[in-house]
Amino acid sequence: MSVGFDMDTRADTTMREDSQERLNAEVWAQADFVDFYATHKLRAVEATLLERHRDALAGRVLELGCGAGRLTGHLCEIAHSLHAVDISPAMVAYCRQTYPKATFSEGDLRDLSRFEPESFDVVVAPFNVLDVLGDAERRRVLEEIRGVLVSGGLLIMSSHNRGFAPRIGAGLRTYVGNPRQPLESVRHLPRRLRNRRRLAPLQREEGGYAIVNDEAHDFSVLHYYISRDSQEAQFAERGFELLECLDREGRPVAAGEAAAHCPELHYVARRGG
Q1: Helix (H, G, I), strand (E, B), or coil: what is residue 53?
Q2: Residue 213 contacts by C-beta under 8 Å, 6 or more apart in sequence?
Q3: Is 237 exposed, middle or buried (0-12, 13-18, 19+ CB in 10 A)?
Q4: pLDDT in tens, 103-138
Q5: Taking the model in full, what pTM does it have?
Q6: Pairwise CA distance, residues 100 & 115, whole Å
Q7: Is 75:61 a contact under the CB 8 Å cutoff?
Q8: Could you write out the three-class secondary structure of 73-121?
Q9: Measured between alpha carbons, how far is 107 from 243 in angstroms, rounded to an integer?
Q10: Cβ pair 76, 53 in contact under 8 A
Q11: CA-CA distance, 192 to 11, in Å (whole number)?
Q12: pLDDT at residue 180 greater than cutoff 80
């Protein structure tokens, strides 16, 4: 009986993760977010990480989920070679025109088979891009990232912080929207309500992570939230050593800290031999 229950649970989880990834991919591939993301402004922590790891970033760099190049332009100034990938045709077209020094590919970040093993010194996965994936696929992609990194190469990434999740207040934000843009928020209220009804049932809490329908793009996506310590354990399982974890202001987050004030955490992990 327990074996059947476990199989049913795994099948249900797999079905939910497939739905999450499919829905997220549809949003990012079909919507045109170029104007929304076309900025060069760095967060404090990103400026810190670019400076601190400048020597490694001066080599061969792969950027996953480049968007409209918010980070890409800064990486171009540092990297010897930069290859960036995004699922959105509009984003890739914009970046190709705006950042001619880099190479861009339109494709799914889950498939890195186009790249040779150990062909990059650093992989950058900014703006919580891996959080569009479910747990199983996220772990598999970490293995793929490890495969394209040289021994000792770095993974620099950010992820939604599970310690912050209780503060999201999705119920209120569904109705209020963005208080800085009240007219647009009122206009988008039907869309937010529709998205919440559709996606809220796919939310769930698991032992090491949570799947949350947060307010991003009018509640149209589902994101993976993970704590600092669970992310360190996930890295270790996939052959990475966590070097540092920082909050959005660039302050260190030590083992055991929830950093509940911060919606996302930034990580630097090194590929083992």
Answers
A1: coil
A2: 170, 195, 196, 199, 200, 202, 203, 219, 221, 222, 223
A3: exposed
A4: 999 999 999 999 999 999 999 999 999 999 999 999
A5: 0.86
A6: 20
A7: yes
A8: HHHHCCCCEEEEEECCHHHHHHHHHHCCCCEEEECCCCCCCCCCCCCEE
A9: 29
A10: no
A11: 29
A12: no
Amino acid at 45: V
Residues 6+ apart with CB under 8 A from 12: none
CA distances from 58 to 125, 148, 182, 202 (A): 16, 17, 43, 41
Residue with the two structure tokens 């997220």: 24
Q: Give residues with Cβ within 8 angstroms of 247, minimum separation 6.
A: 45, 253, 259, 261, 262, 265, 266
- N- to C-terminal Cα separation, the chain: 42
Q: Tell me whether strands 264-271 and 149-161 are parallel, antiparallel or unpaired.
A: antiparallel
Type of residue numbered 265: L
Q: Encoding tokens for residue 144?
A: 């793929």
- Cβ-contact 67, 37 below 8 angstroms: yes
| Block residue for tokens 């919440």 | 196
Structure tokens at 194: 């529709």
Query: Across the strands, what pairs with 157?
Result: 125, 267
Cβ–Cβ < 8 Å for 163, 263 = no
